[in-house]
Design goal:
Length: 310
């Protein structure tokens, strides 16, 4: 392959020959996908219909669940198709679409965590000004900004990548990734690398600065507060911290897998970690918030068992 005009498809080489095990893998991944869809759709619907959850914190959490559905839609259909298929080819158009969706999913996720941290910071550190600073209009604007910012930023990254001439079409992964395509380039990719570092700063460093600042302020206030108030404040932050740490580990693994040679690790192990880290946030978050957030748990219980006492 001498130039990108000749590359019309890519081969996802990480699947290998699954043999008869493909039916087991297909059933497991399908069940996982259906569970993720059910859990997220249930909580999105609950937040939408239950008026007691029409508060800034729950609207932002609902946006997180919407993003989990967006990310799972970008991953699972092609994953299920390739598990059953003997030919693990993906057209360039679908590969680029998957790259766009998965990368914007990650950016939206981290930005959403930053907004959630900021919301908790205002609620705990400035309770008297919370209503004015986190009005319905401001929450809606923040949600829209997260999506527009992530889409616009990665559109530039993708446009730079699409101009590269490619000298190969084999990708040693289960799904398409931007850096996997950049590595197939026939020419120097210094522009992509420089802009990649810049967007990494925008996507990771800026949200992390806001998250760390918010939680540092929260911990400082909690340290000076009575035990009961401290416990109540920290309980609202625990699900967010666990979700953030889980997502951070997932991102770190993907970065390491992309940037370093992982061939010394068996392919099945790498594939298992990839599926786990790509899908764990989509499953963990609705379960975590559904069980840990008292108001969501009570609202869900009242919908399932309307005659029970909350």
């Amino acid at each position: 392959m001498e130039n990108s005009s000749e590359v019309t498809f890519f081969v996802l080489a990480a699947y290998g020959d699954l043999g008869k095990m493909k039916y087991f893998y297909f059933s497991f991944v399908l069940l996982l996908n259906l569970t993720i869809i059910f859990a997220n759709v249930t909580l999105i619907s609950l937040i939408f219909v239950d008026r007691s959850l029409h508060e800034p914190m729950y609207v932002i959490i609902g946006n997180l669940f919407i993003n989990e559905l967006y990310g799972s839609t970008a991953l699972f259909p092609m994953l299920l198709l390739h598990i059953l298929s003997d030919s693990h080819e993906i057209s360039r158009a679908f590969c680029v679409l998957q790259v766009f969706c998965l990368h914007t999913y990650g950016s939206i996720e981290l930005c959403n965590f930053a907004v959630m941290a900021y919301d908790r910071y205002l609620s705990i550190c400035h309770p008297l000004h919370y209503s004015s600073r986190m009005s319905s209009c401001k929450v809606s604007s923040l949600v829209v900004f997260i999506w527009v910012f992530s889409f616009f930023k990665f559109t530039i990254t993708l446009s730079i990548q699409l101009r590269l001439p490619l000298c190969g079409n084999f990708i040693d992964k289960l799904c398409c990734g931007n850096y996997s395509l950049v590595k197939l380039s026939c020419i120097d990719t210094i522009v992509n690398n420089i802009y990649g570092l810049f967007t990494t700063f925008l996507s990771i460093a800026l949200p992390l600065i806001l998250i760390l600042y918010s939680y540092a302020k929260i911990l400082r206030i909690c340290y000076k507060s009575p035990k009961e108030a401290r416990t109540k404040a920290l309980n609202t932050c625990v699900p967010q911290v666990i979700s953030l740490l889980n997502f951070a580990v997932s991102c770190f693994y993907e970065i390491v897998q992309n940037r370093f040679d992982m061939k010394y690790i068996p392919q099945d192990v790498r594939n298992g970690f990839t599926v786990y880290f790509l899908t764990c946030p989509q499953l963990l978050n609705p379960i975590m918030y559904g069980l840990r957030m008292t108001k969501i748990r009570k609202a869900l219980k009242s919908r399932i068992f309307p005659n029970s006492v909350a």
